[in-house]
Amino acid sequence: MDGLKALARRGLEIGRSIRDPYVGHLQKENLRSRFPRSCETIVLFLVPGQLRVGKDVFGGGVISILSLAAETSKLFVSQPTPVLICNYPGSIPFLKYNRIADSPAIHSLPAVCHYFASPKRLIIHLPETHSADFFGLLSSREKAWIDGCKDVHINVLNQNVQMMPTAEILRKSIPERFKTTITTAHKRYCTRVAADQYGMPVHHFSTQLSPEGYRRRPYSEKENLLIVSPDDHPDRLNVMARLEQLQGITIRMIVDMTYEEYKSLIERAKWAVTFGEGLDGYFIEPAFSGAVSFAVYNEEFFTEKYRNLPTVYSDYNEMEARITADISSLDNESDYSVCQEKIFAACRSDYDIEIYRKNIAAFYRGDYTHP
Hints:
This protein has 13 helices and twelve strands. By secondary structure, it is an alpha/beta fold. It has a seven-stranded parallel β-sheet with strand order 3-2-1-4-5-6-7. Strands 9-8-10-11-12 form a five-stranded parallel β-sheet.
């Protein structure tokens, strides 16, 4: 067995060694066709690389980063400022996301360093999950390229506060001479307390989620379909056992589908259950699509106004005890529509595309929520 594993690893290494130069060549050609080498300002968004050749690391966090990059590009349209998405150092390079129809180009950091000779200003957006180890994974050439920039700004994308490194770890991980900020995806943890704790500005971005991006179907157009987030949770099995007792409902877990397939599915679904942080895409996006979303209240993500929604439970014991009866009682046009409107209104008040864009523009002006 060990011999087979070694052979499999060797096969992957050979596949990478053949593929990497080809991918790198295409990435450099893409840069050459779009930007002069003399660009003085460069904005980088880091995303996870592939787990293996052809297997993307893909989810709501990645979609959020891609949206931030796209909106940032609009702010720099009048000047030749590359806004680039790079896979994480040391990961398998790839050209685009296979599960997004209009995926932007993905670049490797070595290709970017090789092409842009000597930028003066560098803004690097790091996902919170990778912010502590980023500089430790850089090659000597990549470190020299970053150190050669006069103005370096590191921004930590805090999209899930539970994944954030501690203030002590973050301070040790990022060189002191670099300007450092934190931006947030949820209002709940964009606070003065966080700014003081980390000793750096904290600014609220929000996310690209907004009602305009979804088709909101009424009860009469919905199928008796329940979608479930793929998150692993200790109480998931108990809740799912209850849900599987419901008659006439089709249950679909969100795995191995494109983003377009996911959006089509939530348009048709009556019900959505998230086992993630609660106020996440599996709650908000179905709500914007006309579904009734269920979650457990999590004070690290939800603000108080969500606490009294009829489908947001105090804990998983309450969810397990009530969810099947609640679905049965809401499965009529009148009660469903009233409940759905409450959930929709709560989400709409927090997620607005124009406010999101204004928040992004304010960040690049240095106008932070908590300086």
